[in-house]
Amino acid sequence: MLRGVPYGTVEGGRPLELDLWLPASAARPAPVVLFAHGGGWRRGRRDDMGVHTRRWTPTPFERIAAAGFAVAAADYRLSGEAAFPAQLDDLRTALHWLGVRAAQLGIAAERTLAWGESAGGHLAALLALTHRDPPLAGAVVWYAPADLTTARPPFDPAEPATPEGLLLSAAPATSPARARAASPLHQVHADAPPFLLVHGEQDRLVSVSHSRDLAAALRKAGAPAELRTVPGADHGWHGLGDAGVAEIFAASLEFAATTLRI
Is pLDDT of 117 > 90? Predict the structure, then answer.
C-alpha cells in the first residue's frame, strides 16, 4: 500500500494526494477502482468509506484489492477551498496520473470504475458520465445527490448556505447553468457506462428520489443502470446493522468485478 502519494498540485503549490492499494499478485494488469469520499464536499478523508466501515479489518480498500483490483483513494479540493468544478478536475487529474504510470504500477487504467459515497458518489457519477479519454468502465454510487436544480427536501436550490450552494459558491437557483453542469441527472447520455446506484429508502439527508430518477434517466437513454433501494436505511447506512452494510459492500464489489471482468 502506498500512502500519501502526490498526484497533482493546486494553486499555492499544495499537493493533492492519493492512497494506492495494489493486489498482491496479478497475472495481468489490474483494473482500477477510483474512490471519492463523502462529507458534503466540505470535509472528509480520502481513506474513509463511511462510518460503518471504519473499524473493518481488513479495511474496505484492502478487501477490494484482495479481490484483484488496484484501489486509488484520492483527495480533492473541498468547497471551502475551491468551487465546482475544481473537485471534478482533481479527480480527472488523478485519472491522468494513474494512466501515465499504468505500466510502472501494473494497472489497466483504461479499465477504471469510479466508486463514491454521498458527495463522493456525486463526483463519481459525474466523472463516469463526463470523462471520455478514456471513458470510465462503470460507477458504484452510494446515496448521492444527482440533481442540484430541483427542490428535494431537505435540499432547497434557493438557499446559498446548503452544501450544494457552498459547492457552487452560489444558490443553485441563481446559477442554473452551473447547477445543471454539476448534476449527474442532467449529464446522462446513451453511451454512459454501467451504474450501480444504492440508496437508503429512509435517507433524510439526500432523498432516495435522486437515485431513482438517475436510474430512470439512464435506462431511458439506453444506458445500463442497476438500482438498489435499502429499506430501513438512512444516510450513511444508519439504521442498518453490520450484516446489512457488509451485504451492500459485497454486492457493490461483485458489480465492480462483473463490470471490470475480473
Answer: yes
Q: Could you report the per-residue pLDDT of 85-110, keeping only the tens digit for each?
A: 999 999 999 999 999 999 999 999 99
* Beta sheet of 70-74, edge-to-edge order: 2-9, 15-21, 70-74, 30-36, 107-117, 138-142, 195-200, 225-230
When pLDDT is cut at 50, 70 and 90, the band that residue 246 belongs to is very high
What are 81's three cell numbers?
477551498
Cα 94 to Cα 14, 74, 160, 211: the distances in Å are 15, 7, 29, 26
Q: What is the largest CA-CA distance in the chain?
A: 53
Percentages helix, strand, coil for the chain (3-state, rounded to 5) are 35, 25, 40
Strand partners, 142: 117, 198
Residue 138's contacts (CB-CB under 8 Å, 6 or more residues apart) are: 113, 114, 128, 193, 194, 195, 196, 255, 256, 259, 260
Q: Is-contact 103 218, C-beta < 8 A? A: no
Q: CATH for 2-259?
A: 3.40.50.1820
Nearest to 22 by CA among 68, 54, 74: 68
Which tens digit of pLDDT belongs to each residue from 13-71?
899 999 999 998 766 899 999 999 999 999 999 999 999 999 999 999 999 999 999 99
